[in-house]
Request: fold
Amino acid sequence: MDKRKFAPIIIGVIVAVYLLLWTFLAFQIEGAWVFKVLFGIPMLALLLLWVYIVKERLDEIRSGEEDDLSTMEM
Reply:
């Protein structure tokens, strides 16, 4: 594995586990289903977004782009 991919993967896994834990806990809340939906669905959406962002960053590294901010326009 490329050394440049190591940090995004480790941080990605840590944050994904954290979001997955919060999503799981949100659906385990005792009470109305409204609370489960209000807390669980946004956390699940954030988890899916995070996976997409990490995948995009790994694709950038694979294509040879060192700086993830180099494509931003000012």
